[in-house]
Design brief:
Layout (H helix, E strand, L loop, with lengths): L2 H9 L13 E5 L3 H11 L4 E6 L2 H11 L3 E4 L8 H10 L5 E6 L4 H10 L1 E6 L3 H13 L4 E2 L18
Parallel strand pairs: 1-2, 1-3, 3-4, 4-5, 5-6
Helix pairs in contact: 3-4, 4-5
Amino acid sequence: MSAASAVQVISVWDREGKEPLGRIRVVLADDHYELRKRVAGLLAAEFDVVGSARNGRELLALADALQPDIVIADVSMPVLNGIDAVRHLAEQGSGARFIFLTLHHEQVFVDACFAAGAMAYVVKNRLPTDLLLAIREVLMGRRFISPTLNLSPGEICFDPKAL
């Protein structure tokens, strides 16, 4: 069994945890069209990109309407930033798992993203090597941080009250 099919079998269950439904559904949120297009192309072979948002407010509407399995969001977006959008989705009980794809290398952003509910943090210059791996890790219930950040989960603040 390939790694891709193993992820699919493990992770694609209906909201009650009963029967497999199909391919993983992903919503992307980034204010740069070309990046959204590039990410969608990278994911197309294994995942269904069901929505694409230009800002955090659009992300909230799409996530509510489409109920994705994975949300991939940028930190810095107009109207509503990705951290606040993901925090809102997590607080509202979204069943999605959240991955940040961003330019920011600073630990303060990493901490804020994980405290908001993220399971993974990928820096954009590592997109081709890290994003698919991050998705697979998240689908297996594990956290992922781009290795170039040289941070382990033990160094990350996951408590929003501590920030």
